[in-house]
Specification:
The complex is a heterodimer of chains A (262) and B (323). Chain A is 32% helix and 25% strand. Chain A contains nine helices and twelve strands. A six-stranded mixed sheet of chain A has the order 6-7-8-3-9-10, sandwiched between helices. The radius of gyration of chain A is 19 Å and the shape is globular. In chain B, helix 1 runs parallel beside helix 12 and helix 3 packs across helix 11. With 323 residues, chain B is mainly α. Chain B is globular. The chains are: A alpha/beta (262), B mainly alpha (323).
Amino acid sequence: MIGFAGVKVRYRGARMRALDDVSLDAPRGRLTAVVGPNGSGKSTLVRALIGQVPLEAGVVTIDGAPVEHRERPALARRLAVVTQREEPAFPLGVREYVGLGRYPHLGLFRGVGVTDTDAIDRAVERTEIRPYLDRAITALSGGEWQRVRLARALAQGGEALVLDEPTTFLDVGHEMAVFELLAQLAGDGQAVLLVSHQLNLVARFAHHMVLMRQGRVVAAGAPAEVMQGRVLETVYDWPLVVTRDPAVGAPTLVPLRARPRG
Amino acid sequence: MTPARWTTLVVALLLVAVAGVMLGTMQLPPGDVLRGLLGQGSLTNVAVVRTLRLPRVVLAMIVGAGLGAAGAALQGATRNGLAEPYLLGVSGGAAVGAVVAVALHAPPALVPVAGFAGALAAIALTLVVARAAGGQGDARIVLMAGVVVGAFANAAIMVALANAQDNVVRGALWWMMGSVSDASWPQVRLAALWVAVGIIVLLALARAIDVLALGEDTAAGLGVRVARVSLSVYVAAALLAAGTVAAAGLVGFIGLLVPHLVRMAGARTHRTIIGAAALAGASLVVAADLIARVARPPAELPLGAVTALIGVPFFLTRLRRLA
């Protein structure tokens, strides 16, 4: 559903391209994960999708049609994005915040209706944020805020969901809950594109993994194909081994202690 | 905002407006005010109420509503609690335009048009300066650029005054200090038109401002055309600055103060914040004008000086919290 073909992006004044000939697909019904070290271009990928960085070359498509940024609201009805960072300037209530997910569906003369409140209710249930509905978003813990942001994206109600490190501040339990939810959404037929540093969880949940380094795709395929010790060691520039997780048998990365360089 | 708080805002506005008509160099008891409004009683009484006090109070309301709404929208769209038409240089630009129009003996209806042109020029200049400083998306740099542009506008007025005729000098000084003392009904109607259009545009943009206040990337993901909405907010703020400045000169800090007050009172979404800020701004300017009239009779303090005396300490506390 979401496609990148030969996308090149260079930030103003930067020597290297942030994205250099990146191609990937995130089809419906699949959890597609993009991994890679800091600065490998993962977040730029998300920003290119929402038109926040100009493309030097290549094309971003939704269902094969190039993304037209004149048609932003139409795009936002089909595709919800949770960006990496979001710092609210003013204390909005959680309820109102999640309601803003319906923004692309509303118009000057089309107010909040039953479809909207239903979508909001469903999103609130799925992310289990009902206890905070009456609090201000500025008064939430990091983990609560992440889940509230996810609820806002679900309320948007598209067919595709893009998340940039959605579990950064979450403890194990809440992190697993988010991954389970994403797997469910993919199972329901949504296209889920996830940017994450959690290689081991990604290896268990994702259908397709894309490994990036310095703006290029280094490896792509099923988790078992991408989780190769030698490749990951080079990409992350750190000694590590990939083993099988003893409990569930998924490929698992174990970083080693630093060894003297020679 | 609960209905009780909305009621409080409306009642406060009515009370302060009644006080505004009653008090001044000549005190009028409520009965005389009522008789004056109805056109009964002595001719002096009717004249004071209908042609002096009432237009003055109504103009103060319009100016306050415009400045409050503009400040609320600018703060939301720039994600910065220090944004307002005066500090962003928008009002300064409008003042330059208005002074030029007056110096060229333009008809009164053209003064706000010239002010609008000046305000747009100031906005363009502010954004160019901010971009040159590399901080286009950084509200703090935009704000600093605005302060500089505002100072430049003041300097431009001063330079224009250097060899101007006496009446132009007096007019320009009056503009730079802010006042509603010369209010007349034609002036009220003109200001009302500009301010009403500006506020309606801002209310139509309110939901987009809510989204914009979350940050550019999130707003883009929700389908907001970030540059276009920001620009629309600036243009609407320029309409409001032009309408208020042409009628009352530079009245600072109302746009800064009022949005904070209404957020403290529980306003969360911008439709509420802008609406409540218009009401609260109206009350505050009527009250400030009242202080300007009764503080040192028979002299009058400049309205802009009174609002600055109230606004500057508030500005400093906000600055401390941000730092």
